[in-house]
Structures are given as C-alpha cells and as structure tokens.
Amino acid sequence: MKRVCLLVSACLILGAVACGKKGPILIGVVGDLESEQHGGDSGFRNGVFLGIEAVNDRGGIDGRPLQALTGNDQGDPDTVARVDEKLVASGAVALLGHNTSATTAAALPVIARHRILLMGPEATSSEFAGKKDFFVRDEVREQAFADALAEYAVKTMKLSSVGALIDAKNRPFTKPFFEAFQKKMKALGSEAEPLYLYEVLDTVEAGRQVDAFLSRGGQAVLLVTNGADTRNLAQMVRRVRDDVPLLGTPWAIPPAVGMGGAVPPEDLVLPLTWDPDSRSPAYLEFKKTYEQRFSHPVDYHAVHAYEAVQILAKGLEEAGGKAERLPQAIAKTAQFEGLQGPIQIDPYGDAERTIYISRVVGGRLHRVWPPAK
To answer: How far apart are CA 121 and CA 139, in angstroms?
Structure first.
C-alpha cells in the first residue's frame, strides 16, 4: 500500500513539473485509503490519479498544474475533522472525497468554517440536499437509487415482499435509503420491512430474522450494507435458503470487482450510476487506460473519482483558481460531460444523472436495465 501511495505521489509531482513553471493548485484527496470495507481504496485513488493526470496533460488550470495532497480518514467520522484540517492547513484549495455519507457529514463543519469546497464523488444522503453550502457531488441522492431499485424489484422481478438488513453505522445513507425504498414499494402495491438494524454485525441474529421473515412468506432480502457485510450476509441468507433474491445498494460494490476475492454476491441486483457494459467512446478509452495502467478492471469508484476531478477542474477554470468562488463557478457551469453521459449539477450542488440496474453474473456486474438497444 505504501509503495503504491509513493508511486502515485511521485507521478503527480512529475505531472506538476511537466505542466509549467507556475506553482501547483493543491487538492486535498481524502477517503478510506486503506480499508476495502467502505468501498473506496484503490479505485477511488486511481481514478483521482488519472483525473489529475488528464487535467495536467491539457495544460492544467491557466497553466498551473493540479497536485494531490492525500489524507486517510480510515472510514471513521471521528477522524475526519483532524485529517481535513491538516489538508486545509497544508494549502489545499478544495477537498475531494470521503467515501460514505457518514464521513461526509463529519466534514461539513470543517468546510463551512474554512469556506472551502468539498467535491464528493460517492456520498448520496438527502441530508445534504437543497442547501447552499460548500458541498458539491457528482452522485445522485439515495432516494433516486431506492426508487429505481424498488421499481425494478416490483415490475421486473415481480416481488411483493422484501425484508431489509441495515447497517446503522452509516445512518445518513442507510436510513433514508431504506425509507425511500419502503415508500416506493408501498406506492407500487408491495411491502418492505426492516428485519435487522445493527452497528456491530451479528450474523446469527440476522439469520434468525431472515429465517422468520421467509417462513411467513417473505420473498427477497435487501442488504443496505457495506461491501464486506454484504458478502457475509449474502452467504448467511443463502445458507437459510439458497434461492432467495438479493437486492443491494451502490455501497455494496468493493474496489476492483472481480479481483482478490472482493466480489459482490452472485445474482445481487443493485442500482448504479455506472453502466459496466457502456460502449461510450470516452468510457472505453478511460477503461483501456485504467486497466493497462493498474492491471485490474475499472470500477464504479474509479469512474466517479475521475469525473469528480474533471468537474472540480472545470470549476477552478471558471473561478480562476480561487477557492472561495468554486461553488458558484460549478453552479454556473451546471452541466458537465461524464464518461458515460451528462451530469447535471443544480444550484445547491446536487447531481442528476442516469441510473442503471445491474446484476452480478460470474463475479462481474452487467447492466440489466435499461435493456441494451
């Protein structure tokens, strides 16, 4: 891990030297850079690296290169303020990252105090929506994901009864996601109920609740959990009954899907704003570069991190490199071209983009909705 971080830092510095004689614009890149539990790690880091490289290859921001300062929040909200404060003190003009809604929530007081923008590539909580502040994201709200998943579950999978296992540690995401899913299911004439809410996972107790739910006619299980817990709970559910349909969230996707055992459960169905089967030329070029550079498949985290850097760079161009003008500059630009299609950012820093439903088949994600044309 340390050798990879040193390599990335060295490459970014070399990029800065090649880009021109003006001083670099420092970006604080922060997330859970060591643990795979929260879904960030290598894909997030590598996507940022390629994003910064692409900006600097175009000449940087008014001749000034972007340069990354990294901080590891360990996926722990209690660590966030210390890490972010250090990045700001080191001269970062903006922060990019935090891999969960819980760590993002912990960062909001810091960015408000320093009036510095946080660009979030993955946080989805509606708690951050509709506010004129210093937080901007290129991911949609959890309600949009929940609505799309519920609609697919009812209309395509023909499910009428879903029980949920919910990780309470990331409550800013998991609570509103389940509530939105439950509300949409009800509107479609079906039901969703919480089976097990936890902060410390007990698979035995979770298994009891799942068994009881299935015994009274329940049809499927929704896992509102991180990647590691999703895999563990899916194994437990399949021990109870091996043909139970499994639904998940974007949080279930570990880095480098299909590598090193970090594979979501087979047949897991989940909503993403990444189409793993996309034929977009921009995406295919990025995919080719990524897989040649890092020798493993591109993932959801890499795509979002790369796009977040491009949005941030456009904002910096519009703002003349001035940190205090970034939120207004991004809002003014409004529409950005992502690797697979447009990303709309509203005046409150909230994103709208296409949602796809994917299924895990043979350890790989494949789009199942909308159907291929």
So the answer is: 6
